[in-house]
Amino acid sequence: MDLQLDRLDVRILSALQVSNQTSAHELADSVPLSPSAIQRRIRHYRSNGLITADVSVLNPRLAGDHISVMVMIQLAQQGLARVADVRARLSRSPHVQVVMEIAGAYDLMCITVFDAMEAFNAFVDAEIADHPSVGRFETVFIRRRVKFGATIPL
After folding, report:
1. For residue 146, is it within any domain?
2. Residue 120: what pLDDT?
3. Confidence at residue 63, expressed as pLDDT on a 0 to 100 scale
4. Do both 38 and 78 map to the same domain?
5. What's the CA gap between 107 and 104, in Å, rounded?
6. pTM of the model
7. Rounded CA gap, 89 and 73, in Å?
8. Residue 36: is its pLDDT beyond 90?
């Protein structure tokens, strides 16, 4: 997709990445457009797929104790279909927050979250350890979330 964004689009989208609950009336205070013009632009972003989701980010301190784990996966069997199968399997899990294909010693990296160690072990056993395309994997337990976001600098 090759959307041409002007400086007003950049300001609107930057603000929405910080809080998608910002109203068009609030945006009009900092973007020199009417609320209705801003709302039309936002509808356009959604209809063209530029905005793909509106989500709520929970405060992990208030949502309960969770274990965050980065999992690095090295595939034993390469090939587009095998990579796609592992990627799809991981993407379906509610425990997986991020899946990325990476370059280097490992092929895939994912960030996962669990409410207990037992849930993590069950996930690894069911989704990773027994998968025929997985050669090896390594886990890194995340001690502290310093910055967490999905904003794209515009």
Report:
1. no
2. 97
3. 84
4. no
5. 7
6. 0.81
7. 13
8. yes
